Amino acid sequence: MVHISNGIDSFKFVLHYKDGDGDIGYKPTDTYKPYDTLSYFYSCLFVQYMELQNGNYVYVKDPLYNIDTIQYEFRLPSLNDSQKPQPITGDINFGVYLNHKTIYKTFKFQIFLYDKALHLSNVIETPAMQRGS
Mind giving me the DSSP string for the chain? Predict the structure, then answer.
């Protein structure tokens, strides 16, 4: 679902997951390396914004924080209620707000996550979307 108001685009996602050992997300006690606040792996779900520029999709620099990519990061709670590894399936619901002024009208998102063992999931891309005029 996409909602646009006042120049801010709002996106809601539902990510269906299936994990063989159920180690998606973190427990509240997972605060030490490599899951500490200074680590890339503090978050486990990542959403990256891409624009179609001159025929190619490119990552867009975040002007607010002066970093290479407009990226949204989420720290998920552990999705496995059991103390034992076990297969799990379900849906993760989340949203992002995009307040990015650009001349380019076509964009998409890449979405991926890392499990607790730091294994990278499949990287998925949304279909291309168009900004209004």
Answer: -EEEETTEEEEEEEEEEEESS---SB-TT--STTSSTTSGGG--EEEEEEEEETTEEEE--BTTTTBSS-EEEE-PBPS--SSS---EEEEEEEEEEE----S--EEEEEEEEB-TT--B---EEPPPEE---
At 130, the amino acid letter reads Q
What was the pLDDT predicted at 21?
94
User: What's the CA gap between 95 and 10, in Å, rounded?
Assistant: 7
Say how many CA atoms lie within 13 Å of 92 toward its Cβ. Answer: 24
User: For the chain (length 133 residues), average pLDDT per consecutive 10?
Assistant: 53 92 94 94 95 94 72 94 90 88 89 96 93 67
Place of tokens 């996550």: 113
